[in-house]
Amino acid sequence: MKPWPSAGRSRRACKKRSARSKSAPTVSAADAGAGREIRPRDEIERKLITPCAERIFYIRHALRAGFTLEEIHRLTYIDPWFLQNIKEIVEMEEELVKAGSLEALV
Predict the structure, then answer these.
(1) For residue 90, what is the DSSP state?
(2) pLDDT mean values, one per 10 residues, the chain (106 residues)
(3) 62: buried, middle or exposed (CB in 10 Å: 19+, 13-18, 0-12)?
(4) 63-97 burial, b for 16+ CB within 10 Å, e for fewer?
(5) Which of 29, 75, 86, 104 could cross-link to 99 by cystine, CB 3.0-4.6 Å?
(6) Could you tell me the domains of the chain?
(7) Three-state secondary structure along 17-83?
(8) Which helix (H) or strand (E) holds 14?
């Protein structure tokens, strides 16, 4: 009988995973600058080139700043299918901001 089947083969493995997950830094939307202001183009390009936890938020900034999906793909090497889906989410966000509330959309 395995007492911890989803955590690993032993309690030691479970403890190691727990320690790793607690030590991993987390980035919130506020920390990554997910505000409404549009960031400078050179800052966006610099953040897109380097893989990091903030990059998803800078894809949003890039789309709002007028970058094309091809430009973002060239900088990030992220599959265009994923970029298209992120673009749709950003467009929905813009619609929600313009409407002012969810009730206004219904």
Answers:
(1) H
(2) 56 65 54 72 95 94 96 97 97 89 76
(3) buried
(4) bbeebebeebeebbebeeeebeebbeebeeeeeee
(5) 104
(6) 26-105 (1.10.1030.10)
(7) HHHHHHHCCCCCCCCCCCCCCCCCHHHHHHHHHCCCCCHHHHHHHHHHCCCCHHHHHHHHCCCHHHH
(8) helix 11-23
